């Protein structure tokens, strides 16, 4: 095909990551492959050509992997400055300081032609893929870096993020799971956070007339979706109507809003089809926001868990990050967003600690975490996430679900473990509804 007319230039500096997958030669002069494990994006290029033009690749998105797409908007993040060429009959492309945003046009048969060309700078670094989202959902985690055959003066460069100090990383342009505001001494158990530490944490309110009541936490995972616990969208044993739910993002002080705080209405609530209010099985829900979120230094999405690594044993004894405005030592809701770390414990350890309680609620779709020493999540933290930092990316693993209550008050007992919904076990369900 001929690429013409629609040209957008983007200048950026991006740090990429790499895995061990290989790209291969196709015939004598064509090389290509997919940086994504699911093969959703295919990259290819002819070897050789003038040095001023050989720093390029042709891309193709396989939209057939996603059935009945109402629209097809991709955001493409690159590791080096580049220009994108797109046939004007196939779509439109815009750019900002972070990425290219391509809206593909639906054809008469309902399909999309997902082809485009990425042209790097002459003698510049090769523009590898650093991130790819479809309709604001990350569809290409754990990217493979392509090291193409550049015959001229072009070169290829990347930096391994895994060996860098967590607190001194530069601001990244990754599509999810990256803090934009850096602080020192980031995590201390049970202590207040600083603004911007958890830009994906959401405050969920139930609205009654003009009264806003804080209900739960949640996690922003795209520009239109917040994941929370199923019981956070229940009122009087019924799923609450979307018009009665308000989401605040970028909020640090529960009682005070500032210019970093944005409010969003909800147009659709999606609890799991098998959510059970009696035993909180499948305690997960998605809030679809009525308007698209504008990302800032204080509002960013977290990454979902990697589908290739969902075995819970891989995180048992590992400490995840938890945040919330839950009850403090004075049995009052915290004003400032608090943070802490707590280890995941095995099914056996959790069950043996309190068999009557955990025997009723534990399943293969949730897990326990905590210290049993007073450091815990509590009422008010429900729906918030447990995150693990994997290769410098914060990924959502757990959703605060329920805890043992104290004998003297109907609030959590911090001497017991806490049950988290294992979001990694619901990835297919989540992705299906994010693309609705």
TrEMBL record:
<dbReference type="InterPro" id="IPR001314">
    <property type="entry name" value="Peptidase_S1A"/>
</dbReference>
<keyword id="KW-1015">Disulfide bond</keyword>
<dbReference type="GO" id="GO:0004252">
    <property type="term" value="F:serine-type endopeptidase activity"/>
</dbReference>
<dbReference type="InterPro" id="IPR043504">
    <property type="entry name" value="Peptidase_S1_PA_chymotrypsin"/>
</dbReference>
<protein>
    <recommendedName>
        <fullName>Peptidase S1 domain-containing protein</fullName>
    </recommendedName>
</protein>
<keyword id="KW-0865">Zymogen</keyword>
<dbReference type="InterPro" id="IPR051333">
    <property type="entry name" value="CLIP_Serine_Protease"/>
</dbReference>
<dbReference type="InterPro" id="IPR018114">
    <property type="entry name" value="TRYPSIN_HIS"/>
</dbReference>
<feature type="signal peptide">
    <location>
        <begin position="1"/>
        <end position="20"/>
    </location>
</feature>
<dbReference type="Pfam" id="PF00089">
    <property type="entry name" value="Trypsin"/>
</dbReference>
<keyword id="KW-0645">Protease</keyword>
<feature type="domain" description="Peptidase S1">
    <location>
        <begin position="187"/>
        <end position="435"/>
    </location>
</feature>
<dbReference type="GO" id="GO:0006508">
    <property type="term" value="P:proteolysis"/>
</dbReference>
<dbReference type="InterPro" id="IPR009003">
    <property type="entry name" value="Peptidase_S1_PA"/>
</dbReference>
<dbReference type="InterPro" id="IPR001254">
    <property type="entry name" value="Trypsin_dom"/>
</dbReference>
<keyword id="KW-0720">Serine protease</keyword>
<keyword id="KW-0964">Secreted</keyword>
<keyword id="KW-0732">Signal</keyword>
<dbReference type="GO" id="GO:0005576">
    <property type="term" value="C:extracellular region"/>
</dbReference>
<keyword id="KW-0378">Hydrolase</keyword>
């Amino acid at each position: 095909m001929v690429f013409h007319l629609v040209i957008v230039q983007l200048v950026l500096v991006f740090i990429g990551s790499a895995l061990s997958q290989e790209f291969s030669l196709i015939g004598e002069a064509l090389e290509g492959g997919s940086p994504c494990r699911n093969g959703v994006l295919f990259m290819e290029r002819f070897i050789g050509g003038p040095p001023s033009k050989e720093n390029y690749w042709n891309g193709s998105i396989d939209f057939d992997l996603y059935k009945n797409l109402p629209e097809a908007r991709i955001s493409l993040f690159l590791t080096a400055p580049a220009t994108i060429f797109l046939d004007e009959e196939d779509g439109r492309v815009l750019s900002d300081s972070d990425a290219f945003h391509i809206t593909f046009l639906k054809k008469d048969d309902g399909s999309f032609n997902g082809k485009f060309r990425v042209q790097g700078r002459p003698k510049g670094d090769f523009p590898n893929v650093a991130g790819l989202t479809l309709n604001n959902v990350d569809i290409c985690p754990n990217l493979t870096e392509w090291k193409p055959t550049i015959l001229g003066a072009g070169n290829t460069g990347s930096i391994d993020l895994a060996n860098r100090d967590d607190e001194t990383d530069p601001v990244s342009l990754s599509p999810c799971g990256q803090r934009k505001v850096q602080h020192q001494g980031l995590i201390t158990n049970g202590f207040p956070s600083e603004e911007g530490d958890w830009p994906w944490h959401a405050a969920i309110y139930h609205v009654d007339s003009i009264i806003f009541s804080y209900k739960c936490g949640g996690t922003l995972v795209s520009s239109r979706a917040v994941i929370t616990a199923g019981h956070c969208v229940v009122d009087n044993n019924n799923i609450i109507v979307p018009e009665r739910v308000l989401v605040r993002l970028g909020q640090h002080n529960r009682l005070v809003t500032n210019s970093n705080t944005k409010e969003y209405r909800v147009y659709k609530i999606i609890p799991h089809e098998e959510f059970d209010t009696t035993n909180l099985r499948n305690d997960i829900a998605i809030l679809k926001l009525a308007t698209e979120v504008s990302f800032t230094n204080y509002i960013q999405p977290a990454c979902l868990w990697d589908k290739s690594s969902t075995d819970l044993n891989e995180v048992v004894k590992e400490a995840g990050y938890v945040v919330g405005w839950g009850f403090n030592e004075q049995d009052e809701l915290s004003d400032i967003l608090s943070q802490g770390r707590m280890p995941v414990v095995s099914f056996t350890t959790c069950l043996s600690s309190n068999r009557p309680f955990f025997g009723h609620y534990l399943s293969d779709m949730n897990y326990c975490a905590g210290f049993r020493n007073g450091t815990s999540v509590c009422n008010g933290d429900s729906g918030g996430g447990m995150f693990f930092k994997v290769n410098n990316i914060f990924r959502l693993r757990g959703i605060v679900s329920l805890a043992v209550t104290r004998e003297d008050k109907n609030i959590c007992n911090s001497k017991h473990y806490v049950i988290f919904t294992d979001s990694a076990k619901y990835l297919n369900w989540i992705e299906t509804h994010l693309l609705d």
